[in-house]
Structures are given as structure tokens and as C-alpha cells.
Backbone:
């Protein structure tokens, strides 16, 4: 009896990386007009941002259906395997609900579905830990207990070029979005229990990055038993600058940087910089 690990495509783990990690990924969808693409399958990150910058109307995104989980869950039940599923925050997407419906249909107790209350770099970090714990020989229940603890300590801090995409995607109010467009300010945000919260707006990239690092002191010290993940939408210049500042401040190379995919890119827009760590 094996332990199967599953996540969704907003973890921004590529298919090749997923194969190497021994995990499965259920895709969310990005929709440009009448054209629908499964993230990580039908469209590359490069092609997505090229389309995003050229279209008149912003794309929309869509959650997986219960059917997208059913085959995987049924196969696990027949094999007697346990399944640990970590998905994007339920307040940001209906992916968690779809997975729960599929579990009810399959009627199998060894399926554990975790609402990560987060996404992208933070969801990826949680999946990384699940893989590590599995490979260390932990039982499914032990892994889930440890993930629930880590989940509550994960911090996500982001800086975006504009709040326009979050507003148009229904993730922010108009009044909050307007504040971020004034005088070339760089909005700094966090994600708490699946909700986007503004931490401030700074004039210029360097001040914005300074605010991101300040926020670490507010949320809690970094636990260096875990890696630091950085993500970027289209351009990586801000993340490289943040990487250098973090390395200078903490003296650590235990950091990874990777591109953020289509679904989160739809709502963040180009020029976003995202940072995740686990607090002590």
C-alpha cells in the first residue's frame, strides 16, 4: 500500500518535476474568450504571457470538476493506497470543493484533502514537504498532521506592478485597486487564510522589496529548516533583486526561484514577485 500525493496546477510544479517527485497534478483552466486551456498541458507559461499582453479582454480561470479527481481516487481505492491532496485556497477557487465531492462519491477514508489556504509558491512548499515526509517513511496520517502544522506557519508576501488584474478577476475591491495605481506605487500584499490583504504601497521597486523584507519581522522569524521559495510572473528582475537582499540579510542559499503559471498569472499580471517561507 503506497502513499499517493496530488496537488493542483497552481502549485506551479511542472509535469517533469512532478514525475521526478512521484506526484500527480490536476490542472485548472485558463480561458481566453472561446479558447480553453488546461494549465501545464495545453499552453506553456511563455505562450500564456504572450497572449495575456496582446488580448483586449483579460482571460478567466476555472476550477477542475469532480470528474477530474474521480479516476485517480478510484484507482487508489482499488489498490488500497492512501491519497494526500493539497489544493489552492478554497476562498480563491472551487478546487477544494470539487475534490471533496469526488471523495464522497468514491467513499474511501484514506483520501486526505487539505485546503492549503494559499497557492503558488506556498502550495509548492507544502507539496515539497509532503514528498519529503513520504520519502522519509512516514505514514499518511503522520504526514497529514505535520502538513497541517506547517500550513499554519507558511507566510506568503507579494509585490505586484498593478492591482488591476486582481480587481478585474474579482479578488480585490475597486477602491483598493485604485490605491495601487497611484504615482507608480508598488502594492505589497499577503495571503492570510485564503484572503488577499494589503500590507502597503511603496514608491519604486527597491522600497517595495524593502517592505517585503520588513514584513518578515512582522509575521515571524524564518524557520531555516524549510526552504524559501520565490516566484515571478513573466519578468524575474524583482525576484533576483529580492533573492540578493535575502541572501545578504540571512546568509542562506536555501532558496529556489521559478516562474508562476497561467492561473495565478491571470490574477496577478506581469511583473509580480512572490516570496514564501515558514515562520518559527
Residues:
Amino acid at each position: 500500500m503506497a502513499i499517493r500525493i496530488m496537488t493542483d496546477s497552481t502549485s506551479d510544479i511542472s509535469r517533469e518535476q512532478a514525475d521526478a517527485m512521484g506526484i500527480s497534478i490536476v490542472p485548472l483552466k485558463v480561458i481566453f474568450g472561446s479558447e480553453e486551456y488546461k494549465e501545464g498541458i495545453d499552453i506553456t507559461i511563455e505562450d500564456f504571457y504572450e497572449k495575456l499582453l496582446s488580448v483586449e479582454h483579460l482571460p478567466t480561470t476555472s476550477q477542475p470538476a469532480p470528474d477530474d479527481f474521480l479516476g485517480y481516487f478510484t484507482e487508489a481505492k482499488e489498490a488500497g493506497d492512501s491519497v494526500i491532496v493539497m489544493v489552492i485556497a478554497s476562498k480563491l477557487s472551487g478546487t477544494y470543493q470539487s475534490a471533496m465531492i469526488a471523495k464522497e462519491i468514491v467513499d474511501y477514508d484514506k483520501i486526505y484533502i487539505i485546503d492549503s489556504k494559499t497557492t503558488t509558491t506556498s502550495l509548492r512548499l507544502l507539496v515539497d514537504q509532503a514528498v519529503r515526509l513520504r520519502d522519509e517513511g512516514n505514514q499518511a496520517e503522520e504526514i497529514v498532521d505535520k502538513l497541517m502544522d506547517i500550513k499554519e506557519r507558511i507566510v506568503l508576501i507579494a509585490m505586484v506592478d498593478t492591482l488591476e488584474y486582481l480587481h478585474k478577476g474579482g479578488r480585490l475591491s475597486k477602491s483598493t485597486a485604485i490605491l495601487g495605481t497611484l504615482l507608480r506605487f508598488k502594492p505589497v500584499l499577503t495571503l492570510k487564510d485564503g484572503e488577499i490583504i494589503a500590507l502597503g504601497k511603496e514608491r519604486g521597486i527597491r522600497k517595495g522589496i524593502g517592505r517585503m523584507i520588513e514584513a518578515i519581522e512582522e509575521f515571524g522569524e524564518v524557520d531555516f529548516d524549510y526552504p524559501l521559495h520565490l516566484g515571478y510572473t513573466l519578468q524575474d528582475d524583482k525576484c533576483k533583486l529580492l533573492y540578493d537582499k535575502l541572501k545578504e540579510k540571512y546568509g542562506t542559499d536555501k532558496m529556489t526561484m521559478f516562474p508562476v503559471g497561467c492561473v495565478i498569472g491571470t490574477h496577478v499580471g506581469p511583473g509580480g514577485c512572490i516570496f514564501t517561507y515558514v515562520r518559527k
Q: What stands out?
A: The chain has two domains: 3-29+62-152, 154-278. The chain is about 40% helix and 25% strand. The mean pLDDT is 92. Residues 154-278 form a domain with the Hypothetical Protein Tm841; Chain: A;domain 3 fold (CATH 3.30.1180.10).
